[in-house]
Design goal:
The chain is an alpha/beta fold. It has a single domain (5-220), classed as TIM Barrel (Alpha-Beta Barrel), CATH 3.20.20. Helix content is 39%, strand content 17%. It has 7 helices and 11 strands. The strands form 3 sheets. Strands 1, 4, 5, 6, 9 and 11 form a 6-stranded mixed β-sheet that branches. A 3-stranded parallel β-sheet has the order 7-8-10, with no helix packed on it. It has a two-stranded parallel sheet with strand order 2-3. Helix 5 (153-161) links the parallel strand 7 (143-145) and strand 8. Helix 1 (32-42) crosses helix 2 (57-69). Mean pLDDT is 93; it is low at 205-211.
């Protein structure tokens, strides 16, 4: 397994939302200008990987053109139950992402936490959601991103049993390139290229140790 470190950067919404946001979700929406500035920064980093969560319409309207302009790639994690809803990517948008070579993964069915799901809910989140996305792409969906960054050992066990080959979190620490579990840094509304650079590269050993400990607690509780 490849062991070099990578930096996973996660975007959510860009610009003005076209749907009602969940409580606290506005913290993860950035202006169009701020998005372009941060994207210019992170595409210059060696071993940086990009992803977008939630399947907002801005993924297609702002994110995709910006990636293509910079010859960059990102994985888009879609909420299956929102596909085609106002403010969200629709079926044609999913196909357009794939036409441009952008990988597509599952962010579940309803953007609810995956901890404590009933068996029926787990089937819906881990199986039905990806099947719905796969129907649009014509390809298997084998990557998932945990909604709201919440997971525990039981969630990871269910994801492994469901056959996902890679699972993304938001633990804000570097990842091993070939690892099954992939922590990410979420871009927040107040972030700038400089602040994000400091967050990713500036904490030193103590900060990295704290972030690693958070992930360890989540995996074992």
């Amino acid at each position: 397994m490849t062991d070099h470190r990578v930096i996973n950067i996660l975007f959510h919404g860009i610009g003005r939302p076209r749907r009602e946001l969940e409580p606290g979700e506005d913290r993860y929406w950035v202006t169009v200008d701020r998005f372009h500035a941060i994207l210019d920064e992170v595409v210059s980093w060696p071993r940086a990987r990009l992803s977008f969560d939630d399947g907002n319409a801005s993924d297609l309207e702002v994110g995709l053109p910006a990636l293509l302009e910079r010859q960059a790639n990102a994985t888009f994690f879609l909420i299956a139950g929102r596909l085609g809803e106002p403010g969200s990517v629709g079926a044609d948008g999913v196909r357009e992402l794939r036409r441009h070579g952008m990988p597509v993964g599952s962010h579940g069915m309803w953007h609810r936490p995956w901890r404590g799901l009933t068996p029926q809910q787990a089937t819906e989140e881990f199986h039905t959601a990806r099947d719905r996305i796969a129907e649009l792409t014509g390809e298997p969906v084998d990557q998932a991103a945990c909604p709201l960054g919440r997971y525990d050992r039981a969630v990871l066990s269910r994801l492994r049993a469901a056959g996902y080959t890679r699972v993304f979190t938001s633990d804000r620490r570097p990842a091993r390139a070939g690892a099954w579990l992939q922590p990410r840094y979420s871009v927040r509304a107040e972030d700038t290229p400089e602040s994000l650079r400091d967050i990713v590269f500036g904490p030193g050993l103590l900060g990295r140790a704290r972030a690693s400990a958070v992930g360890l607690v989540k995996r074992w509780r």
